[in-house]
Amino acid sequence: MVQQTEAVRTLSTEGEIELAIQHLRSSDPLLSELIDIHPPPTFDSFDPPFLALVKSILYQQLAYKAGTSIYTRFLALCGGEAGVVPEAVVALDQYQLRKIGVSNRKATYLHDLANKYRNGILSDESIVEMDDNSLFTMLNMVKGIGAWSVHMFMIFSLHRPDVLPVGDLGIRKGVQLLYGLEKLPMPSQMGQICEKWRPYRSVASWYMWKFVEAKGVPATAAALVGDSSQQQQLTLPPPPEVIEPARGIVNFGSFTWGQ
């Protein structure tokens, strides 16, 4: 049974970032030092979940420029972002999508997502209301959307406060550097290491990306993730004027770096 959240507080709720920073300062002195030198993130507005998920599929394994070009042509087929709805996506056949640069595999992913909406398995409303565990399970049922993509979507589109992308190389490298670990922590170790950050692991993850960016660690230029039942290398777009380690956050919703 899908569980729904009650009175969901998100990172775009007034005062929530301040509460998160207060908690992280008190629970982790090492992280507190990072908070002192980096401005806080802001989470401004939501893209409709269906649109954000379509974006995440279209940009997979593409450089920012190539992904943006394909996305622009995709919007032209749909009549703009307001026209990116399940019925319109299902109506686009593989030939039409291939003409604008969308592979047959990604076309299959887009149609699977759209059909799950049309069949009532998913909806924008249910996605917003589902608790984190239910949402993770349901979105992993969509072809082409795996753990890393779901985590990015939950943080940067839905602004969920307590998401830890355990497979993200940038966050793992940040944890290694922050705590002086000899080896890069395995995804299976991340939950225990970062337990002190609950219930604001999303914000702590943001500081890990900023930390690694400041260190200039090359490993954060891409993320190796287990989407679509295989390892994929995703190179995704940074926010404007900032080289963002996670390389893809701009696709999942409105997100602004602190200035």
Automatic annotation (TrEMBL):
Gene3D superfamilies: 1.10.1670.40, Hypothetical protein, domain 2
Organism: Thalictrum thalictroides (Rue-anemone)
One cellular component term from this protein's GO annotations in UniProt: protein-DNA complex
Pfam families on file: HhH-GPD
Family membership noted in the UniProt record: Belongs to the alkylbase DNA glycosidase AlkA family.
Gene Ontology MF, one: DNA-7-methylguanine glycosylase activity
Protein name stated in the entry: Dna-3-methyladenine glycosylase
Classification via PANTHER family: DNA-3-METHYLADENINE GLYCOSYLASE (PTHR43003:SF5)
Ranges where the HhH-GPD domain occurs: 58-214
Domain of life (superkingdom): Eukaryota
Keywords associated with the record: DNA damage, DNA repair
GO biological process, one term: DNA alkylation repair
